[in-house]
Amino acid sequence: MDNSKGYAIELHGIVKRFPGVVANDGIDLKVRRGEIHCLLGENGAGKTTLMRVLYGLYRPEEGEIILNGQSVHMTSPRAALNHHIGMVHQHFRLVPTLSVEENIILGLDEGTGPLMNFRKTREKISAIADEYGLPVDLQAKIWQLAVGQQQRVEILKALYREVDILIMDEPTSVLTPQEVDQLFTTLRTLVDDGLTIIFITHKLDEVMKVSDRVTVLRQGKHVATLSTAETDKPTLAKLMVGREVVFRLKKSPIKRREKFLEVNDLYALNDRGLLALRGVSFELFGGEILGVAGVSGNGQHELAEVLTGLRKSAKGRVFLRKKEITNCSTREINDLKVAHIPAERIRMGIVPSLSICENLILKKYRHSPFSHGEFLDNKEIEENTRRAILDYKIVAPSYEIPVKLLSGGNIQKVVLARELSEDPILIIAVHPTYGLDIGATEQVRQILLAQRERGAATLLISEDLEEIMTLSDRIMVLFNGEVMGILDAEGANIEEIGLMMAGTRYRGEEL
Ligand SMILES: Nc1ncnc2c1ncn2[C@@H]1O[C@H](COP(=O)(O)OP(=O)(O)OP(=O)(O)O)[C@@H](O)[C@H]1O
Ligand SMILES: [Mg+2]
Predict the structure, then answer these.
(1) pLDDT at 248
(2) Mapping DSSP to helix (H, G, I), strand (E, B) and coil, where does residue 335 land?
(3) Which H or E run includes 391?
(4) Which residue CA neighbors atom 8 of ligand 1 most closely?
(5) Which atom of ligand 1 is nearest to the CA of 52?
(6) What pLDDT score does 252 carry?
(7) DSSP assignments along 159-185, one per residue
(8) Cα–Cα distance between 503 and 336 in angstroms, integer?
(9) If you take atom 7 of ligand 1, which residue's CA is the nearest one?
(10) Do 7-241 and 253-337+425-436+455-511 agree at the fold level?
């Protein structure tokens, strides 16, 4: 001792292999006590895997974990917890039907037995929530909460267990910009109190804003560890991607075609039976991208669901190329060449246990060329997969691998490949670049622009204003289920849009 001084965690030469891939190829990582350390890397770089090794979910084939100078065997998440390590996963693991409080104490010894002291528990949770700015209704059931609130529950759950080290796997990809700011404030308060935080992301802005140091992974290898103050975005982008990155999207002038979609006075209820859409009307033309801006929970989700047949409308009518599709089934709507890129890709976008091949043909295996009579044509199916993997740069060890084992970003690419491969006329894209790294984000944006060029109409729902501004021809702002206005994207003023997102009606000229 004691060259480990100051390091809360040291990982040495971690190797973790899966069939066909080396997810972690001898990775070293040193995290200082009391810092926010970002783990940066492209989709499939090995970030989640490395943190699962640290958290005891995976046993590495090689390598050593040293905590506070001591070598440890991390055999399970319980062992990790005993070492005061907590993790907030990329996909939350709360029980939807239980209350916030029940979820927080779930699995703890004090959570069982008739003598459990609810009052003390509640006081402790409230104290933590107050101290770190994590307000949440303890009696609410998880399913009633927005994603941002669910995340607070996950953080509270870890803090309740008195962790010293908190791992957060892409915590911001489900949050609105305001929630991201709140989270960053909370994280700062936590490190000021002595916690150590590892923060996984592929967003450079976030690295610059929140971290003290940053480690870059590329293709399972450690590339660099830098002090954030001494680096910049272009440097990090280059380290992450392995080449110079240029951000340039070519967007041609709009060539509006016929009216593809007409929505008249649409009303719909949300899952809780409250009105989520109140008289939404708009038109969407071929060759156009209409961006839908708004703070999450203002009806965007329900709008996408009604248009794709997943939710019934309470009132109002929808026409696709003059044909009425109000309350048609998903299958009928899909057959009219409407593509849907859903927000919740794990739950709605894929069948997790099926292979890439199978997921790619989910909607069309009944038809030629994939089947003849009762028989599936394996050669065609394989060829289809090969093309998708090539076109969308899907990183996968094999075609047969269940989709759930792909990295988050690669799952998204499978959904995109399936939905966009058949020349849709209408694309309902909800957060199409959530969870994608810089390269993949740019690629997906190019793809959406190419679809626009081809003449497809796109409804782009996103909370990322920058994304809306770069891609859209017009922007519609939703607030509390109502359209606050629709404006031309060119020359649109961010402040104006911000005001509309907060409930001010557009004062300019309606289009
Ligand atoms: N349980 C598993 N079985 C098989 N392969 C896996 C498993 N988990 C991860 N992989 C593979 O290991 C590689 C690294 O995946 P990982 O999830 O660690 O990436 P990531 O950096 O977190 O990416 P993303 O930003 O997309 O979440 C990927 O090629 C992935 O397909
Ligand atoms: Mg990941």
Answers:
(1) 63
(2) helix
(3) helix 378-391
(4) 405
(5) 18
(6) 83
(7) HHTT-SEEEEESTTTTS-HHHHHHHHH
(8) 35
(9) 405
(10) yes
> Which ligand has the shortest distance to the CA of 201?
1
What CATH number matches the domain at 253-337+425-436+455-511, 3.30.465.10, 3.40.50.300, 3.60.130.10, 3.40.50.410? 3.40.50.300
Question: Ligand 1, atom 22: nearest CA belongs to which residue?
Answer: 48
426 pLDDT tier (thresholds 50, 70, 90): very high
Which of 14, 15, 17, 18 to mutate to test ligand 1, by most ligand atoms within 8 A of the CB atom? 18
Tell how far the Cα of 46 is from the centroid of ligand 1, in angstroms.
6
**Ligand 1 atom nearest to CA at 41:** 21
pLDDT digits (tens, 9 = 90+) for 66-86: 998 999 999 999 999 999 999
Q: Which residues pair with 62 in a beta bridge?
A: 15
Nearest CA among 44, 157, 182 for reference residue 100: 157
| Residue extents of the structural domains in the chain | 7-241, 253-337+425-436+455-511, 348-422
| Spatial distance between the Cα atoms of 54 and 60, rounded to a whole number of angstroms | 9
Query: Between these two residues, 13 and 108, which has the higher pLDDT value?
Result: 13
321-366 pLDDT tens trace:
999 999 999 999 999 999 999 887 777 788 889 999 988 988 776 6
Is residue 223 classed as helix, strand or coil in its secondary structure? strand
Cα(52) to centroid(ligand 2), Å: 10
Confidence of residue 5 (pLDDT cuts 50, 70, 90): low
Q: Per residue in 121-179, pLDDT tens?
A: 889 999 999 999 898 899 999 888 877 888 899 999 999 999 999 999 988 876 777 78
pLDDT of residue 260: 96
Q: Which stretch of DSSP H or E encloses residue 9?
A: strand 7-18
7-241 sits in which CATH class? alpha beta
Name the residue of 40, 89, 406 to mutate for ligand 1: max ligand atoms within 8 A of Cβ: 406
Cα–ligand 1 centroid distance for 21 (angstroms)? 9
Which among 11, 21, 404, 414 is the best mutation to test ligand 1's pocket, defined by most ligand atoms within 8 Å of the CB?
Answer: 21
- At 214, the amino acid letter reads V
| Residue 339 β-bridge partners | 427
pLDDT of residue 338: 95
Q: How far is the CA of 191 from the centre of ligand 2 (A)?
A: 23
Burial 453-472, CB ≥16 within 10 A → b, else e: eebbbbbbbbbbbebbbbbb
Q: What is the mean pLDDT of residues 31-36?
A: 96
pLDDT, tens only, 268-284: 999 888 899 999 999 99
**Of ligand 1's atoms, which has the minimum distance to the CA of residue 58?**
1
Q: Ligand 1: residues within 6 Å at CB?
A: 18, 21, 23, 41, 43-49, 202, 395, 405-409
- pLDDT (0 to 100) of residue 487: 93
Cα-to-centroid distance, 404 and ligand 1 (Å): 10
Ligand (nearest to CA of 14): 1
